[in-house]
TrEMBL record:
Residues 386-578 form a coiled coil. The keyword Membrane applies. The lineage of its organism: Eukaryota, Metazoa, Chordata, Craniata, Vertebrata. Its main location: membrane. GO terms for molecular function: DNA binding. The SWAP complex consists of NPM1, NCL, PARP1 and SWAP70. This is Switch-associated protein 70. SMART domains: PH. One of its GO terms (cellular component) is nucleus. It comes from Erpetoichthys calabaricus (Rope fish). Keywords: Cell membrane, Cell projection, Coiled coil, Cytoplasm, DNA-binding, Membrane, Nucleus, Phosphoprotein.
Length: 676
């Protein structure tokens, strides 16, 4: 194979390359268009299958043959390239198909689609994973492209050609699925972090940021040759020796390129002799291989992993500790790790492999790369959403400004309206003063006429006054009864409200206990889960605090309702006393007037009776209370508010109550004088 590659390189580098009518063969595919001269290649990045991985390496080999950078390679070069690809991919050679694909006719080359359809149909379609060594295949493509493009500063540079080849393979794996192949800054950072982790050193990204600051055009992607030039310059590994970097590159190469999840020494119990032997184990997604030593020259066996496999920890025995077993369909492998940490790491790595197999995935590193791609896409989406949110915020601020302007205009209009209302109010006040003057004159005239009528009808006026006093007493009694009824209704409402608040308080207490139990359960989880659920615990704590505040508010509302209930009870007792008092007065006033009472005179008695024109029955405070009773009775039918009840309860228990009692006392005295 190596001789074939060397002969191929000699042939393609010869100056007498025969260029004929097939020099126009372009490297094309429906999803891929290699146009090296223009520097733009469109690729479908939705998959990371074997074909896309092989195409990346073949693209470097093809562009190495494109000396003029026109996207065209001679037919003889394509024959040699195809022959070496057949050999490297371990598939049968088909020399006739290339001649048939690019055969001559009268109009020139039959195939105008270029080399890509042939590559897809006769080479890539026949390549099967596991039937060839991909590292050998990549080594072939690396030799072709490095001869033309890789030019180290010296033969004994910071990195050797072997490490350069491994970095080239890692670059291809981590590069984007678009051509020309580039690796974005996030993937460059990921690879460098891996290398520093292998060196057990802490990475400072300042040097990489300085590199991108000096070359801002590389923020969209760096080519493999620029990347190798960066690694060769040692600006990222100033205090690290070339031997350490070589070991780090090899370790990262084994982990990412060969998809090794974990490797290390462990003891394995034999199946036949049942003795314990130390072996070097290498875990891949579908198998665990074990060797005599870490150079992996002598392989002792392999454990095939499938969906039926399980891994379990087992108790210490035979003087061995940190034991676990791998159960397959045919056999159970007993293994002893060096310590508990190693056992946990190995069991977790094996469980990861089994999970990938159950999900139908064959590569752990491809899965990690897809996750990183999804995270980057999500980050881009989040940035777009943030930009949209900012635009919406600006639009909202603009609308708020418009609303403020409208408010200012409305305030100005309101000020004008108020000025107009003030002018109308002044006019109404003047009109009202004129009407009051006319009303006073009418009152004086009516007082004179009432005095004359009173002299003629004193007896009838006395009877009418008594009837009115009885009516006033009856209305006062009815009002006291209404106040008592309203007080009872208010007490009942307060009791219902208190019961509702108690139920809400019980519900909040139940929620509080549930939140406390949930918080206690969250706090009892392991330290590893603590970081993941810290945000949830914070939300639960906030919810607990809100529930406590609501409970406190309910308790304050309950206390307030208790006070209202106590006040309503006091009002009810006071109203009951008024009802009793007015009932007694009503029974006393119900005594009939005897015959001949109109002859009982006494100028003094007539003087005690109120006159209409002065401080009489119709203009006294008793008359005012009567009118207010009428208005209040109508209002209480429309509005049963607690404020109105409280106002009239105070009215009945204050000065007007004393005045009514004083009138009743006068009536009683006149009644007694008449009976004498």
């Amino acid at each position: 194979m190596l001789l074939s590659c060397l002969s191929f390189l000699k042939r393609i580098s010869a100056p007498t390359i025969c260029r004929h009518r097939f020099a126009g063969c372009q490297f094309k595919l429906q999803q891929f268009t290699f146009c090296h001269a223009r520097g733009n290649v469109v690729a479908d990045s939705a998959s990371m299958d074997l074909k896309s991985e092989l195409l990346k390496s073949i693209w470097y080999a093809f562009t190495a043959l494109d000396v003029e950078k026109s996207g065209k390679v001679s037919k003889s070069q394509l024959k040699v390239l195809s022959h070496n690809l057949y050999t490297a991919l371990n598939i049968p050679h088909d020399p006739v198909s290339l001649e048939e694909h690019f055969r001559d006719d009268d109009d020139g080359p039959v195939s105008n689609q270029g080399y890509m359809p042939y590559l897809n149909k006769y080479i890539l379609a026949k390549a099967k994973e596991g039937t060839f060594d991909k590292e050998t295949f990549d080594d072939l493509c690396w030799m072709m492209t490095s001869k033309k493009n890789y030019k180290p500063s010296s033969d004994n540079g910071f990195i050797s050609r072997k490490e350069a080849f491994k970095l080239w393979c890692l670059f291809n794996f981590l590069s984007e699925n678009r051509y020309p192949l580039v690796m974005i800054p996030e993937e460059v950072e990921y690879l460098i972090k891996k290398m520093f982790s292998a060196l057990s050193l802490e990475w400072d990204r300042k040097d990489l940021d300085d590199f991108y600051a000096e070359n801002p055009e590389l923020m969209n992607g760096i080519s493999v040759w620029k990347f190798l030039e960066l690694m060769e310059s040692r600006r990222l590994f100033k205090s690290v020796t070339s031997e350490s970097v070589s070991l780090a590159v090899d370790e990262v190469f084994q982990e990412i390129y060969h998809d090794i999840l974990k490797k290390g020494y462990m003891w394995k119990k034999g199946q036949v002799r049942r003795n314990w032997n130390e072996r070097w184990f290498v875990l891949k997604p579908s198998s665990i291989s074990y060797y005599v030593s870490e150079d992996m020259k002598e392989k002792k066996g392999e454990i095939k992993l499938d969906n039926s496999c399980t891994v379990e920890s087992i108790p210490d025995k035979d003087g061995r500790r940190c034991l676990f077993c791998i159960k397959t369909v045919n056999r159970t492998f007993e293994i002893s790790a060096s310590d508990m940490k190693q056992r946990v790491e190995w069991m977790q790595a094996i469980q990861t492999s089994l999970r990938l197999l159950s999900e139908g995935k064959t590569s752990y590193q491809k899965e990690l790369k897809l996750r990183r791609i999804k995270l980057r896409e999500q980050s881009v989406k989040d940035k777009e959403d943030l930009q949209l949110l900012r635009e919406l915020q600006e639009e909202k601020e603009r609308q708020i400004q418009e609303i403020e302007n409208l408010k200012k205009k409305q305030q100005e209009a309101e000020a004008l309206r108020r000025e107009e209302e003030e002018r109308e109010w002044e006019l109404q006040k003047e009109t009202q003063l004129a009407l009051q003057k006319q009303l006073l004159e009418a009152e004086k005239t009516r007082a004179i006429m009432a005095a004359e009528i009173a002299q003629r009808e004193q007896e009838s006026e006395r009877q009418r006054l008594r009837i009115k006093e009885l009516e006033t007493t009856q209305r006062s009694l009815e009002m006291a009864l209404d106040v008592e009824i309203q007080a009872r209704l208010e007490e009942e409402r307060a009791r219902v409200e208190q019961a509702r608040l108690i139920e809400e308080e019980q519900e909040k207490l139940t929620q509080l206990r549930l939140l406390q139990e949930e918080q206690q359960a969250l706090l009892n989880q392991t330290q590893k889960e603590k970081q993941e659920i810290h945000h949830i615990v914070t939300e639960q704590a906030n919810a607990l605090e809100n529930a406590s505040q609501e409970l406190k508010k309910l308790q304050e509302s309950k206390q307030k309702n208790d006070q209202n209930l106590e006040e309503a009870t006091k009002k009810l007792r006071k109203a009951s006393r008024h009802v009793t008092h007015w009932s007694v007065q009503l029974n006393r006033l119900k005594q009939p007037v005897g015959p001949g009472s109109n002859t009982v005179s006494g100028g003094a008695h007539h003087k005690d009776l109120p006159l209409p024109g002065a401080t009489g029955a119709f203009s006294s405070n008793e008359f005012i209370v009567k009118q207010q009773f009428k208005k209040t009775g109508q209002k209480s039918q429309e509005d049963q508010s607690s404020d109105t009840l409280h106002e009239w309860a105070v009215l009945l228990s204050s000065d007007e109550d004393e005045k009514v009692q004083e009138q009743l006392k006068k009536v009683t005295m006149s009644e007694a004088s008449r009976t004498m």
